[in-house]
Amino acid sequence: MQRAYAHHIRAMRPDDLDAILAVQAACYPPAMQEAAEVLLARMRAAGETCVIVEDGEGLCGYLFACPSRRGHVTPLGAEFDAAPDADTLYLHDLALAPRAHGRGLARWLVGHLLAQAREQGLNASALVSVQDTAGFWTALGYEAAGTSCPEARAALASYAGGARYMVSVLTAPGAPSQSC
Ligand SMILES: CC(C)(COP(=O)(O)OP(=O)(O)OC[C@H]1O[C@@H](n2cnc3c(N)ncnc32)[C@H](O)[C@@H]1OP(=O)(O)O)[C@@H](O)C(=O)NCCC(=O)NCCS
User: Under CATH, to which class is 8-169 assigned?
Assistant: First the structure.
């Protein structure tokens, strides 16, 4: 895609926090906003999979993700669980500042981390779709999926109504079985 602005993806840093909180506040109602300490803990726990995108004005979007297990859901407001036996890249939160919507940056951020996940041998990516974004995720290859374990269902219930667990298989054969 041709972009009218220069954009750059890089790893998230603790000093990005204020700009990330500003994007979060612009994108989510108060009940869905997560605490600064939790965001910092996620950067520490999953530094390689938490990225931001910048334009000429500074940080304009972010994606928090972590290596996880298929079927696992991170509750709203919770820190990431380390998954030493990860098989899935879990996308926890993707948000773009309103000024940057429609530039293809959300798709670019996701594609950036999915390419990394494939290189690392992860065979799926999963997420919880909120705020009527299922169509966006479907276009990126995700499909609504069931969550068989009670912990995951309880975690899903921490999101507002309409939240949907979705999965994209990154490797064709031998899709992994569901596990928490
Ligand atoms: C969802 C979000 C990240 C998409 O950002 P964006 O800047 O519109 O995304 P892109 O420009 O990369 O769009 C890629 C494609 O998805 C489409 N799209 C964007 N939002 C969509 C939605 N809610 N439903 C269906 N399609 C959508 C775009 O039209 C575009 O389609 P195209 O390739 O045919 O032109 C952005 O709207 C946002 O930050 N929302 C608030 C936070 C949020 O709800 N995040 C999702 C959490 S699960």
Answer: alpha beta
